[in-house]
Design brief:
The structure holds three protein chains of three kinds. By secondary structure, chain A is α+β, with helices and mostly antiparallel strands. Chain A contains seven helices and ten strands. Chain A has a single domain, classed as Alpha-Beta Plaits, CATH 3.30.70.20. Among the domains of chain B are: about 140 residues, Rossmann fold, CATH 3.40.50; about 210 residues, Dimethylsulfoxide Reductase, domain 2 (3-Layer(aba) Sandwich), CATH 3.40.228. In chain B, about 35% of the residues lie in helices and about 15% in strands. Classes of the chains: A alpha+beta, B alpha/beta, C mainly alpha.
């Protein structure tokens, strides 16, 4: 299955997450909100940092000389995603209309080649069947389907919220969504407002402005993956180090 | 003619069958259906339990009282978001609040009255529970050596009045946990004021330098994320206006790791360090002379005390280089407003002497009525004619004197350790807990009368004691409690009546009436995302409706009172000197654990194992370990 | 007498074909009854339209099947209609939802938003759901024993021949209409 150009006249979007590292304290609210929104189960008994299912990783960056830096790392939604190229099942698709890299777990056969290909280590494999205590099942989110054991999953920028925003726009007879209706769960939860979200294709928007700001950078910028997560830091040492090395997992 | 069938016929027929099946829908349909079958996970994705709606309430799991925006399908919340602009939290939220909707079905949740006898836990019915409670109440009334003690984690509610009435009727004690962390050290400062009762709150938005002696200001203390956000916002301003956080503590915790400066210090030597800073401020004439002149007493005595703590001596005592002490003092003076906080709510309180030194430092820096704002209290119902016990503390009555201990659901074991409560119990005392969980203090009770779980009842919720403005919400319920759940207030009334101690019935809406009558403050309506002045609310019905949609009342600014702070109280100087010069007492470091779990009366959701097992952000939560 | 090869072959072929084309569809589906004998025509004759019970809300979500509360708006008491009496006795009074067997039920990972189709493109309900509004009783529910979904998803014909445009709700059916209208989609437009 391959993407084809969309033939109606909707302009393309490039949804981008902006992460202000000056504000992140590593509290874990973003990861928790993500797990609640996307029906990610509690940790299996044997789960570790490497084997757990975590769509929004928050890690302490390797220590420099200054204060600690905590870095939230979701799927970087690359414009040139290495994972799409390697998937034998075409279970991953880059949507040119939104820039979102779609992970379709029901197509996945669990080879984990995409996890090898991803330089940001933001993909998780379901080593164990996702299980919830009986009482927690009624609190699950109906808007996100539950995955089986044996498939890879990852952040998709809370696309269910984009779907809901589109349905709302259709019901109101509008061609475009209201940007205030599409806010991922992590962004809504961050208590220090380290996360913000927007459309980089909007030339007058905040994201486009921040993308040109000298304090903004991207992880592993030299690899050419074209990540759509924009990091910001007022510390030049942090910017230089992280854009060069990224953050390893576990 | 006889039919001769051979193997060839069999093979041909077999081949025909295979061809027939292949030319039929069977293999193709089976493939399609089986692949659909394999895609169904053991846990089906739930259907929406009703139409989508957003509801507002407040989180009552820890003292921060953050606003919550709940995403609900029908009556079922499935997730939460922060509420920017909320007077208590301004967009703050933490992993505990984000998973609050899991707690009603937590495995440790209890929905029936239980008694522990002979080491075994057994379910009993409401009548038996009331009988046991009333027998114990009657006994308390009769025997002065076995009194009633009630521990209430959230005073000011209508249930609190019931507790106070009960304590008064039996000659018992009504206890509220002491303030924790920074609130405790601020109370110590406020007590030095001679102009009447004073309450101080921390206004980070007015601070340029924040010195913290162990208070996790960037992480677990106060509104989540607030100081981190304010500091980050200030970084893009000119250098002189940037907020900096200086963390002074023996073990490098998360706030120390994030702070602009971390000052490692020998444990228990905070008083010496604070006096060292005071020494430099006074010696180099960097203290806020105008404030000291107008608002303090005892400067001369304090100055002579501080004179002993030259940086060299401080280095000897604390391990902090003399140059660091001097530089920090100069930096604080040059970047006012500066404020000093001390104490970790999840660990033991600082000693009185350390708090005295911190208070003095705040006074030298002129912090009160600036970054340390004067605040009021949310209006409460007047006591009126009712006979209600006054608030006291656990230290006010002798060990082994309590025959009946009532522990409210709002008491966190991290703030009131079981070891401390155990001391006051007489032999064979009855310990009753109203917690909905068989966890923390609920697990230690001999009689568990579980109340509603978080989000199952409307909660009268005042904001934190160290917030710059008093807030009050009547956080609406989002879930329905189990049908046959016995409410603690009802059980108490029945038991009291049976014991011959009739209690006044609570009057509905009386706190709303008190709020309206006070004519102060304004209400934030999260649905409209705007404020309405209390004076503009028509009546208690309208006020009740506002609160029922998640509104939060916030106080007005209070005018500065006249009066002075005592730099040193009577007889304090020698004690302070001894404590600062003497051998340091090692303070137990608080164990890194899930934020705020220690100060919450509820166990964390099982989903938070994702944070403890699947990240390196936190150590696994230890049992509540605050020590008296 | 020895059988000629084609006859032996046919002896296998014909029963297999019959089994595959006739017996297999019969065995593959199990029939279940709907909980109540709902008469659409009786409701539409009274002047109601599809959207009176199956509406797209302001937030774009589709109401799906009406709740018991919605039905109770008109049918809260027993009368002389057996169906209404069953509704009141078994569902309205105890406050239970009717466990309808939904023909259009799709797998969990399918996201179908009614709003862009109904409000946006103004597709008639009958285009995908057939002349349901004219039915006088709730059709028996034929459920695929393996996949658990209604026969309506595949369509009545096992070979998918002679289908009317509303018969069949497989992904390929959606894609066919999308391509015809020049509306190619990305995976996450229709999956969640």
């Amino acid at each position: 299955m391959h993407t084809q150009k969309h033939t109606t006249s909707l302009p393309a979007h490039r949804y981008t997450l902006v992460v202000d590292l000056d504000r992140c304290t590593g509290c874990g609210a973003c990861g928790t909100a993500c797990a609640v929104e996307n029906n990610i189960p509690p940790a299996a008994d044997k789960a570790t940092e490497r084997t757990g299912t975590v769509w929004m990783r928050v890690q302490e960056a390797a220590a420099g000389d200054g204060p600690a830096t905590f870095v939230p790392i979701p799927c970087q939604q690359c414009d040139h995603p290495p994972c799409v190229d390697v998937c034998p099942q075409r279970a991953i698709e880059y949507d040119p209309r939104t820039g979102i890299v779609a992970q379709i777990p029901v197509r996945c056969l669990g080879c984990r080649y995409c996890m090898v290909a991803c330089p940001y280590h933001t993909r998780s494999f379901n080593w164990w069947t996702p299980e919830w205590p009986e009482g927690m099942k009624s609190t699950l989110n109906p808007d996100v389907s539950i995955r089986t054991r044996g498939v890879v999953e990852k952040c998709n920028f809370c696309v269910q919220r984009l779907q809901a925003a589109r349905a709302k726009a259709s019901a109101a007879g509008q061609a475009e969504i209201d940007p205030a209706d599409y806010v991922p769960a992590c962004v809504e939860a961050c208590p220090s407002r380290a996360l913000s979200f927007g459309d980089a294709a909007d030339e007058n928007g905040e994201v486009a402005r921040l993308a040109k700001d000298p304090e903004s950078f991207r992880l592993l910028a030299g690899l050419g993956t074209g990540p759509k997560v924009l990091y910001r830091s007022s510390d030049p040492a942090v910017r230089e180090r992280l854009s060069r090395t990224g953050v390893t997992r576990g | 003619m006889k039919l001769e069938l051979s193997r060839r016929d069999l093979f041909l027929a077999g081949g025909g069958a295979v061809a027939g099946i292949a030319l039929s829908p069977v293999p193709w349909k089976l493939l399609d259906d089986l692949s659909i079958w394999t895609q169904q996970p053991p846990t089906p994705t739930p259907r929406p339990a009703g139409p989508l709606a957003f509801r507002f309430t407040s989180c009552a799991l820890c003292p921060a009282a953050c606003g919550l925006k709940a995403r609900c399908f029908g009556a079922q919340p499935v997730g939460f978001a922060a509420v920017p602009g909320h007077p208590a939290s301004d967009g703050g939220l933490c992993p505990l609040g984000l998973t609050a909707h899991h707690l009603a079905t937590h495995p440790l949740r209890a929905t029936h009255t239980e008694r522990v006898s002979g080491g075994k836990r057994e379910r009993i019915d409401r009548t038996t529970a009331v009988a046991a409670l009333s027998a114990a109440l009657a006994a308390c009334g009769r025997d002065p050596k076995r009194s009633l003690a009630v521990v209430d984690g959230r005073p000011g509610r209508s249930l609190s009045r019931t507790y106070r009435a009960l304590a008064a009727a039996t000659g018992g004690f009504y206890v509220t946990p002491p303030a924790a962390g920074a609130a405790h050290s601020l109370e110590a400062l406020a007590k030095r004021f001679d102009g009447g009762a004073l309450a101080l709150g921390v206004d980070f938005s007015k601070a340029c330098r924040v010195v913290s002696f162990g208070t996790p200001v960037l992480t677990d203390a106060g509104t989540p994320g607030l100081l981190a956000r304010l500091r980050a916002e200030s970084r893009r301003r000119p250098a002189a206006e940037r907020i900096e956080v200086i963390q002074v503590e023996a073990t490098r915790g998360r706030t120390a790791a994030l702070a602009d400066r971390y000052v490692p210090i020998a444990p228990g030597t905070e008083a010496a360090f604070a006096l060292g800073l005071a020494h430099v401020l006074l010696d180099e004439k960097l203290a806020d002379a105008a404030f000291l002149e107008a608002r303090t007493t005892g400067l001369a005595d304090f100055a002579s005390l501080a004179a002993r703590f030259a940086p060299a001596l401080v280095e000897q005592k604390t391990g902090v280089p003399a140059g660091v002490v001097t530089a920090l003092a100069r930096d604080l003076a040059a970047h006012r407003p500066a404020l000093v906080l001390g104490g970790d709510p999840a660990a033991a309180s600082l000693s009185g002497e350390t708090e005295a030194a911190i208070a003095a430092l705040n006074l030298l820096l002129g912090a009160p009525f600036g970054a340390l704002a004067m605040r009021g209290q949310a209006p409460r119902e007047a006591d009126g004619d009712a006979t209600l016990a006054a608030t006291t503390s656990l230290d006010a009555f002798p060990d082994g004197s309590v025959g009946l201990l009532l522990v409210d659901a709002t008491v966190a074991e991290g703030l009131v350790p079981w070891e401390r409560l155990e001391r006051v119990l007489a032999t064979d005392a009855l310990v009753v807990s109203f917690s909905p969980f068989r966890a923390g203090l609920g697990e230690k009770a001999t009689l568990l009368i579980p109340g509603p779980a978080p989000l199952e009842e409307s909660i009268e919720l005042e904001g934190p004691a160290d917030a710059p403005f008093a807030t009050l919400a009547f956080a609406p319920a989002l879930l329905s409690p189990p049908k046959d759940l016995a409410l603690p207030e009802g059980i108490l009334h029945d038991a009291a009546e049976a014991a011959g101690l009739p209690l006044p019935s609570p009057v509905a809406g009386s706190r709303l009436a008190a709020l309206l009558a006070a004519k102060r403050g304004r209400l934030y309506d999260p649905v409209a995302a705007s404020f309405v002045a209390t004076g503009d609310v028509a009546d208690t019905n309208a006020l009740g409706e506002l609160f029922a949609r998640g509104a939060c009342w916030v106080d007005d600014a209070t005018t500065e009172p006249k009066g002075r702070f005592a730099l040193l109280r009577d007889g304090e100087a020698p004690r302070l000197l001894e404590a600062a010069l003497g051998a340091p007492s090692a303070l137990p470091a608080s164990l890194a654990s899930l934020p705020r779990v220690a100060v919450s009366a509820a166990p964390p959701s099982l989903l938070l194992t994702k944070l403890t097992r699947e990240t390196a952000l936190f150590n696994a939560p230890a049992a509540a370990t605050a020590r008296a | 007498m020895k059988l000629p090869a084609p006859v032996s072959f046919a002896a296998g072929l014909v029963p297999a074909l019959a089994a595959g084309w006739l017996l297999f569809p019969h065995l593959l589906y199990r029939t279940e009854a709907q909980p109540l004998p709902f008469n659409h025509k009786a409701h539409t004759e009274g002047g109601m339209g599809c959207a009176d019970c199956h509406a797209v809300a302001e937030n774009g979500r589709f109401a799906g099947l009406p709740t018991t509360e919605a039905c109770a708006g008109c049918h809260s008491e027993k009368g002389d209609n057996a169906g209404i009496n069953a509704l009141v006795a078994s569902y309205v009074e105890p406050g239970r939802e009717v466990p309808w067997l939904v023909h259009a039920r799709q797998p969990d990972n399918v996201y179908f938003p009614h709003a862009p189709h109904v409000t946006g493109d103004k597709l008639a309900c009958a285009r995908c759901h057939g002349p349901e509004g004219e039915s006088t009783t709730a059709r028996a529910y034929q459920v695929n024993r393996l996949s658990g979904y209604s026969r309506d998803i595949w369509g009545p014909s096992i070979a998918r021949v002679g289908r009317k445009e509303w018969q069949g709700m497989k992904m390929s059916d959606c894609i066919q209409c999308h391509r015809a209208g020049g509306r190619e989609s990305a995976c996450l437009d229709c999956h969640k």
